[in-house]
Amino acid sequence: YYDILEDRVPAGLVAEYHSTLALCSEKFQEFSSLRSGLDSDSESEQDNISMVEGLRMYEQLEALKRKLRIIENPLL
Fold first, then answer.
1. What is the SS3 assignment for 34?
2. Coil, strand or helix: which one is 45?
3. CA–CA distance, 74 with 71 (Å, rounded to integer)
4. 52: number of Cβ within 10 Å
5. What is the pLDDT of residues 23-34, one digit of tens each?
6. pTM of structure
7. Domain range holding 20?
8. Contact, 68 vs 17, CB < 8 A?
9. Quick one: which of 73, 74, 40 has its CA closest to 54?
10. How many domains does the chain have?
11. Which of 10, 33, 57, 70 lies 20 to 30 angstroms, CA to CA, from 51?
């Protein structure tokens, strides 16, 4: 955070970080709404498709979080 304020980080990297963070927030909102819409007792095909979609979204979220961690600490 302070590195950004003191201009020690390239502007392109800061822009990429902010866009990735915004995308991560958007995906999390989509994932949360999908998860809240699932009925835990239902065996319908639509719920099964939604669960697969939820797993795909979860993997995307994890990839975005890894990217953010690497930007925050490139030595990881």
1. helix
2. helix
3. 6
4. 10
5. 999 999 999 988
6. 0.75
7. 2-72
8. yes
9. 40
10. 1
11. 70
